[in-house]
Amino acid sequence: MKNFLFLTVTILLLSACSSKKSLISKSFERQLSSAFYQNQFTGVLVIDAETKDTIYTNNSHKYFTPASNTKIFTLFAALKTLPAQIPALKYVEVNDTLYFEGTGDPSFLHGYIKDSTALKFLQNHSNLVFVSNNFQDKKYGPGWAWDDYQWYYSAEKSALPINGNVVMTYKSPELMVSPSYFKDSVLELTHLNHRNETSNTFYYPPTKKDTLETPFITSNQITQSILENLLSKKIGNVSTMPTGEKQTLYGPYADSLYIRMMHESDNFIAEQLLLVSAGVLTDTLNGKLTRDYILENELKNLKQEPRWVDGSGLSRYNLFTPQNMVSVLDQLFTLVPQERLFSIFPAGGLSGTLKNRYAGDEEPYVFAKSGSLSNNYCLSGYLVANSGKVLIFSFMNNHFKQSTSEERNRLEQMLQTLRDTY
């Protein structure tokens, strides 16, 4: 009798689950077969986070341009390689001289993270020598648009970034410039661009009131000069560390960077985190070292091998499948406690890039990373259904000519179907 009851309950549960899947599938097929989607490329995968059952799939094995969904892979790489606190500097002390090198840490006097750990440490040493040979990457990622050089989202990569490698200019009421080293390089006049393409000459319109963030051209000499200006002391420069065991100075908690990267889709932090990870893995700052390590060791069982070329998703060379995204999201769901994980991702209707979208009736039900480039919009993450079940999803839309707003509206309808049905 007990076996009969168990079998009956099991059959009823499976039947209910099958019915829910059928309703979702019919709704999604009706939406995706509409005229709106006929002239674009869309891929979808939704699974149950607990049972791993596939709820819906369409083109989930095919490659898409992910845009900032790439940051999901960067987050995974950082969580797998970095300690709870970010390495801020590496150094060797010889007699009364401190030799130091950057770790790629993006938080050093960052305009929003505002970490001063490294600055205070350097202030406490009289004789400083900057070691500048560990950055073995390029300042821009492959496939980045060359004419983005003047926009805040395309700051250059470097070993020891300062102020997010941007010049912040605003009125208060006089013109304020940070880092102050560039004070005399900002011209208060209206210009077609915010900065000269090949020099650190900046323009701030006289009528502008809000803050302008403009990337500056980096170099070892520029970094040294900014530090000398900040510390009011001369700094030496050599290409190699002296003999001795390197010590590490630790900075802010890593989650503060992860949250900024995911909530605000901060490209600079994403790129620099790959450099920090590379420094932990190899002592050389090169993002490819991190990407290769993660793909060859932590993600070697992905069903499709992605093309992963940067940390931010700025490059259109990146190629990922919805299955790639869901696989990594699934591993994150296992690796990180749910409360912490959901705090790192933007919450629909509440925070970050999802603040004005995907709102729940009383509380957030979507925790996900969006990704936008012209003619591309992707959203991948987690959904909490009304039943309390957690779903992992990836919606990837490429090559559309309609408005991104309409893409989001239709996606929101499908997410609501998942929430209300499953």
Automatic annotation (TrEMBL):
InterPro entries: Beta-lactam/transpept-like, Peptidase_S13
The organism of origin for this protein: Maribacter aquivivus
GO biological-process terms attached to the record: peptidoglycan metabolic process; proteolysis
Protein name: D-alanyl-D-alanine carboxypeptidase / D-alanyl-D-alanine-endopeptidase (Penicillin-binding protein 4)
Family listed: Belongs to the peptidase S13 family.
Domain of life: Bacteria
Keywords of this entry: Carboxypeptidase, Hydrolase, Protease
PROSITE patterns for this protein: PROKAR_LIPOPROTEIN (PS51257)
Molecular function terms, GO-annotated: serine-type carboxypeptidase activity
Alphabetical list of Pfam families matching this protein: Peptidase_S13
UniProt key word Protease: yes
